[in-house]
Amino acid sequence: MLKLKFILPFIIFSLLVVLLFVGLSNDPRKVPSPLVGKPTPGFELPQLKDPSKSFNPDMLKGKVWLLNIWASWCSGCRVEHPILNELAKRKMLTMVGFNYKDTNDDATKWLAQFGNPYDVVATDQDGSVGFDYGVYGVPETFFIDKKGIIRYKHIGPVSYKDLTEKLIPLIKQLKAET
Amino acid sequence: MIPEFGQFALVVGLVCAFLQTTVPLVGAYKNIPAWISVARPAAQAQFLSLAVSFACLVYVFIQNDFSVLYAAQNSNTKLPLEFRISAVWGAHEGSLLLWALVLALWTYAVTIFSKKIPDVMIARVLAVMGFISIGFMLFILVTSNPFTRIFPAPLEGRDLNPLLQDFGLIIHPPMLYMGYVGLSVAFAFAIAAMLAGRLDAAWARWSRPWTSIAWVFLTLGIALGSWWAYYELGWGGWWFWDPVENASFMPWLVATALMHSLAVTEKRGCFKAWTVLLAVFAFSLSLLGTFLVRSGVLTSVHSFASDPERGLFILIFLIIVVGGSLILYAWRAPAIKSTSKFKFFSKENALLMNNILLIVAAASILLGTLYPLVIDALGVGKISVGPPYFNSVFVPIMVPLIVLMGVGVLIRWKEDNFQRIQKHVFKYVVISLALGVLSAWFMPHLTIGAVIGVTVAWWVVLSMSFNFMQRFKNRELSISALQKTPRSYYGMHIAHIGIAVFTVGVTLTSIYSTEKDVMLTPGQSYSMAGYEFKFAGAKRIVGPNYQGERGKVIVTQDDQVIAVMEPEKRIYTVQRSPMTEAAIDAGLTRDLFVAMGEPRGTEGGWALRLYHKPYIRWIWLGCIIMGIGGLLAATDKRYSKAK
Amino acid sequence: MRSFITLLFLSLVQINFVLAQVEFRTFKNTEQERQYNVLIDELRCLVCQNQNLKDSNSDLAKDMRNKVFSMLSDGKNKDDIVEHMVARYGDFVLYKPPFKSITLLLWIGPLLFFVIAFVSVVRIVKSRNQDEVTTKLSEAEHQRAEALLNPSDKNKDKTA
To answer: Global pTM?
Structure first.
């Protein structure tokens, strides 16, 4: 009675359903970065506090650090900022802010108002360096290890849950490496 | 009051659907005539309730009652009346109510146009449709209620997306839904037949007109969508293989296969199991489409809602309806016996090949649409599958199909031999090829693609014409003979010629369209495709809910003024989004298209986009012709005469 | 006549919405322009709801189009530019899926479907016709069957 060709449509449908079910919990808009596992793209950008000085990722070789892409016009950045401030208090790693497509004035005012967790802020006013990092939406946060390799990209605002469950363990792991 | 009444009417409709499903189904199983006869009145009451419910929602929009959240999100007092009404189905909740209403409408139609069909059969058909109605109405009431109030009520609504403030919104969704939902009738007939264990020529004959009419609506609905996108989105494209578009095209392909399969089952008594499966697939794809558009599983410009919770509800419903049907199929299909055989070279086999190609096409589109999901689910990365893939896969399937179309019509049922039609086939192939090369010769440059496309189109036209005339081979071609010819005979030939027209449009416009972004100051002109586009400056304008600039472009050909085109650039006051409005000069052999970009320089210059799209109207003209053919076939008198 | 046809095609609505951005660029030659148009057609805008670079008016799309244009002007070819984009954004940015191990099934799929469908259907039809062959009667057997079925009607077996 259960000849294969008659039960086959049902089997195929079942597989489809499983796929769709899994699909429901995925976010089709999150694009993973191809830069994970690769060295940080090099650049030289002026610092926010003192534009005559520049920041270069090579300056942080040997240290674990994060690169947080943010802008004063970005609402998600405001949401995640308290979390970053919290992380800064713990002094676990160097935090580099990457001010993306913004003006120095607006950026400085924003940090004055919402707090400055960054050890240094690089400014990318036309977004050309951001392009090399595959930035497609703000905020985004990269985690870089002591060898200068990008180990993880967090897309979207960092929540407290993300911080405690994923990011802090990651930072500890990266720091433990030689 | 009215919103609450609308919601109440919806609940009443749900109760009616429940009665429509359960009572007749049990009655059919136990053979209780009184219970069987509940089906029709319950279905009619359901339709009435839904009509009332929908009318209430329309009233809410007309009256600008922004205490209803859905209206506040999608309408505005300054919105012109016709768009206030069409805004009712402009977003998720309202469009679902439209879905339910259209389903109730089809259900009602089944109660009316089924007097010759045994009550037991109709009871089961209505019960199946009722089950689907229950699913949708529950979905609306539980997750997507358009009547939800908001407190305090805002004074002004958020306005309808300017892109949707267009004639297209008024007709495209209703037409498309009539098609999508209409496939539920063929589905219900298939399920009813499987439940009854009765799958014969009569069942096929009952199903055919319903399937054809749904197919006509779906054809026109998709064509309308394509036409709307063309003038709306501004870059001359008419099909983007977007997941939502694919979601409507797949049921169309399967419905086309279904129509042909039903014809064979009715005429020859074979293909029964395949026909049933196709009927299930066609509607399943409609439901899948509903899932894809509203669950957020795929990104699309057309998606209504990105809500995984709602998606889960639809998925569960899909599992019950489709899974249940396929289990029923696995159980009942082995017992289905075909009553005739056919040889390799026969019309049956040609139609079988036709269906294989159509199903492979639908499956390939499904594969491409869902593949990114597969890759993501497996965690191996993220890819995109777009037009380059679909075009390279779809065209090689379609070309043989269209060729086969011309051949299949000439082959006899059951058994035939190629020698019989050999000389006609060769003759028409040669003529088609000659015409194809000749037509491509007149185009700006000769390409293989154009030759192939036009040749196969001519092949279909010649083959169809020849076949049509075969009927009058032994009788005289008189007015009375033409009048006596059944409608379905006309319909079949006309519909296939429609495909030929469509093919010409697609081929020529894809290959020979020209497009250019230019910068012109007032008085400057640009030459393209034999036309001269002269820019005559721009001036400020103010509209009901927008303000902007209107440009003037004078188009001449050989110093004759062909058209004066006035594209606009608008900023909508509420949503503050800038919209560019193209000016189109439509024609049977070409469209000219001008869109405004940005002002440039200090002399009143503007960046403009110019298009020349040859034969693009043939695409939609072909669809209209297909629709006419389908309508003729569906309204053939023998469906109302026979039992 | 033209206006009648215009009416017929419901294209009275001459002023129609359009979303795409019009950008005026000067290309070095038509080949570059052609390549530009192909690239912005096949590259995806990451922040949009399924739009290519050509259609999209988002900032990112603008940046990407500018990048494509400048790279073409610098003399890079299509493959270089595609590689550049993929290195930063991944395969997601391509509307034409690359030929990789994970996309093998995607590209071979349609052909596979056709072969499977064709072969299975041919088998089913053949097996059906086989039944007929084995149940065909010979002429003598046929006449005997007729005689048995219609014992009293001697005229009938002429039409066998």
So the answer is: 0.91
